[in-house]
Each structure stands twice: as C-alpha cells, then as structure tokens.
C-alpha cells in the first residue's frame, strides 16, 4: 500500500478502483492551409457542436451553479472575438485546430495575468480548447470515464463540464493533483455530497483499475488497498448516508442550544430537500457574462422564485458580488493592477450606484409578494461607515433586516463598531482567509494557508462572535468551513449563531452538533484557539470529541469564549 496526502475538500470516505479523466485530443502536426475558407467553416462548425454539447450538459446538470458556469462557457465559445481571431490566424496560414489553440492560449495568458476570478477560469478555457479541437478533428469529447461500475475519479483537475454531470452513485470520490479547497471542483463536490481530496501529489501515478481509498476530511489517500477494505469503507459510507437521511429538524446541540443550519444557493434550483432557510443567496449568477444588466422585472422574478419556495423561513440575499475580478461588461470598470484588492462587491456602488439601488428595489418587491423572512447583506464591506450607508439604503427600500459580510480583516477587527449599524454579520471564511494570509484563493501552492483551522482565522471568527454576543445580534458563517462537521463544533463554541452550506452537507453537521453540548463545543473552541497550528487544532478537537461529555477546558486560561 502507498499513502498519499492531499487537502481534504469534501468530507466522507470512499473506496474503489481508480480511473482517470480521458486525456485531451492530441494536436496533429501543423500543416499548410490549402483552403482557408474550409478551415474557417470548420471553426464555426466546431463552435456549434461544442456549444450544443455544453448547453445539453447545462440543461441536465444536477447543480444550478454548475449549469450557470457551463452556460458561461457556451458564451465564451460563441464570442465573436474568438471566432474573428481564429479567422485571422487561419489567414496567416494556421489550420482550424491550431488557430483555436493559439487564440485560446492568448486568452489563457491574459486570464492568468488578471488573477482572481479570471485566473480561476483558466481551466474553463483549457476545457473549451480541448473540446473545440476534438470537434475539429472529429474525435470524442474529452471527459469523465464510464467503466460501467462505481469508481474513484482521478485527474489533474476537473473542468465545469466534467463536474456538472457527475453522478454520486457512480463516482464515489474525487482526487485531483491540483486545485485547492475553495476551487470550483471542491465546492461542487461538496454540493453533490461526493468525498474529495485536492492537491494530492502522486495521484496521477496510480494506475487505472488499482484499488484505493480516500478520506475527504483528512486528505489521506491510500493506493493498493484490499478488496475487503473497499467493501468495508463503502458499507460504512452507505450506513452513514442512510443514518443522516433520517436526520431531521433544526440544528441544535445535545442540550438544545440552537445553531441554525442554512443553505447556500445560487437559484431556486439549488433548493433540495427541507431546509431551515437560506444563509447565502448568491445573486451574481443572474448577472454573469451579460452585456446588459438584468432588468428590474427579471430580478424580481428570480428572487420571488426563491422566496416563494421558503414561506416563513429566513432567506439571506447577498447583493451583487462582482467587479474587477468578476468582470461584468455592462459595469465598464477600468482595468486594475490587483483586481482582488480593487472595485468589487459593495465597492461597485461607488461608481455605478444604480446597480445596487435597482437590486434593492427588486428584492423589496419580491419580498413583499411572499411570506419569506428576507434579510439582505452586502459583500466586501471594510468599514463601519460603509456598513451604515448600506443599512440606510436598505431602509430606504423598505428592507427591515440589513447586514454585511465579514471578508476583510479590518471589518472583523472592528466587528463591534460595524454591528452598531447593522442587524447581523455573516462571515465569509473563504475570502477572509485569502485576505488574512495574503494568499490567493486559486493558488494551489498556498492552499495550506487557506485552511479554516488556521489559528489566526479562528481568532478573527472569535472576535466577530464575541461582538455579536455583546450586541445581542446574530453572527453567522457562510464560508465553506461551515460544512465541516468538526469545525462546526468550533464555530458553535465560539458563539456563531448560524452555519450556511451546500444543502447536502447539512445532515452531517446536524448530526455532529447533536452529539455535543454547548459547553463541550466551547471547550472544543478554546482548544482550537489555543493550538499553534491547524494540525494541532484538529488533533486537539479530535481528542475532545472522542471524550465527549468528559472534555476539560484548554490549559491556556488567557483564552476564553464569551457568551
């Protein structure tokens, strides 16, 4: 047996034979173009074939967010600038496959240089290139294998078109050599409930058909396990799934302290099963890859679909989280040297205030037409003054519950002052990690710094939670860390009042909370705060979990959880 270590990206255990993603088509040697018109026609035919295939995948995707990403890929393929640039390359002597490859290589370099959201979409461009080349050559589209039985999928990384069609009953687990815990692959794996490990060096050396096991929490992958191990791991997984499927009701600790378990969604299609409410409604999916903003009426219809599905329940709407690092053509924002630190989120309203006011007006109309308890929050708030201005705008449009996301360390450190002006806080741990550790979320080499178990991040979470307790106002977490059943205990112990995650992650977190009292959660949080490293924090929490009901306080008496 050979043990490999990566980063746990989606909790759960799985085992079975491994099969790798089908390789991209090999680009043939360049040949002299004898019929430029035929090559240009081949480019257009390839675009039609790929766009139709991606559209079909989007229409049948299990996840609404994945469907939106696929539709964005369709728009990339149909972009006239891509086709025009390919025509120019063909006029220069290239054939269709080489013309498309060269043009997309230029786009790829530009995306990488831009960083942020665009750098995240480099794999989308690579996938689009491979599909267009395959269509030009008359070859099958690259993608997920189908060996006819359940298996573990291994790959360098996965493109949206690959992940969107994954069937959890067939693909038992995912292991990638690249990526990070906040990558598209990791987020979608959690959404689908598929155990996953990313950034696993050596996984591509494992031969197709070899038996392996993975632990999506610890990031450990073992190649060369026995058939008996495979049966045991998968039996345990099925038993766990069945047990959690029977888990119902609101989130609470063993002694009935409430911790609301809410869903992260991008549209009404993401609502699967019964949920307490929605802690993060990402509205930017309505805006992406459009040359004109969605109209007031179009927004009202989209918001009303979600609100109507949740009568009497809380729905936290995040206003548009876009800007220089999530480029929207209609915003016409200037290029920036560092988009992640530029005009994004609420800052867009500084230059284009009507985008925010139109959205608030639409949310207000949709909320008035339903019985949902609609809350609104702004992303990328850095100061108490920004929070106060946003709350005032919400009040002007008749929205009674206004809050902000804590993603910037400055806002976390001044959480008490921010709470004087808003009704609630919601911590986005993905971006808060990025800005706290100066580590780009999409840089796999720095994935260890984005670990939510980093003590510095836990300390910022403790500051926010304590401010909420003092102000008597709720503080939630809507980052991916909320989906970790162990980390949920830390958050509850800190005083966090709600956890928002992919709907499929809720049963495991509900079960974890129900097994511990609030006092045990507080002791677990103190141990995590006192730990010198993420590894030590995990180990300390594991010890306390195993002795549930008999846990003792952390030895560092200077650290105490308020509330």
From TrEMBL:
What transmembrane ranges does the database entry give? none
| Coiled-coil residue windows | none
EC number assigned by the record: 2.7.3.9
List the InterPro entries. PEP-util_enz_mobile_dom, PEP-utilizing_PTS_enzyme, PEP_util_AS, PEP_util_C, PEP_util_CS, Phosphohistidine_dom_sf, PTS_EI, PTS_EI-like
Q: What is its main location?
A: cytoplasm
Keyword vocabulary terms for this entry: Cytoplasm, Kinase, Magnesium, Metal-binding, Phosphotransferase system, Sugar transport, Transferase, Transport
Domain Phosphotransferase system enzyme I N-terminal: start-end pairs: 5-121
Q: Cite the GO molecular-function annotations of the record.
A: phosphoenolpyruvate-protein phosphotransferase activity
Residue ranges of domain PEP-utilising enzyme C-terminal in the record:
249-515
Which cofactor(s) are needed, names only?
Mg(2+)
Compartments (UniProt record): Cytoplasm
Top-level EC class, please?
transferase
Describe the reaction catalysed, as an equation: L-histidyl-[protein] + phosphoenolpyruvate = N(pros)-phospho-L-histidyl-[protein] + pyruvate
Query: Which part of the chain is the PEP-utilising enzyme mobile domain?
Result: 152-219
Q: Determine the domain of life of the protein's source.
A: Bacteria
SUPFAM superfamilies (UniProt xref)? Enzyme I of the PEP:sugar phosphotransferase system HPr-binding (sub)domain (SSF47831), Phosphoenolpyruvate/pyruvate domain (SSF51621), Phosphohistidine domain (SSF52009)
Task: Write down the Pfam families for this protein, in alphabetical order.
Answer: PEP-utilisers_N, PEP-utilizers, PEP-utilizers_C
- UniProt keyword Transport, yes or no: yes
User: What is the role of the protein in this entry?
Assistant: General (non sugar-specific) component of the phosphoenolpyruvate-dependent sugar phosphotransferase system (sugar PTS). This major carbohydrate active-transport system catalyzes the phosphorylation of incoming sugar substrates concomitantly with their translocation across the cell membrane. Enzyme I transfers the phosphoryl group from phosphoenolpyruvate (PEP) to the phosphoryl carrier protein (HPr).
Q: Which family does it belong to?
A: Belongs to the PEP-utilizing enzyme family.
Q: What is this protein called?
A: Phosphoenolpyruvate-protein phosphotransferase
- Specify the species: Micromonospora parva
Taxon lineage: Bacteria, Bacillati, Actinomycetota, Actinomycetes, Micromonosporales
Name the gene that codes for it: ptsP
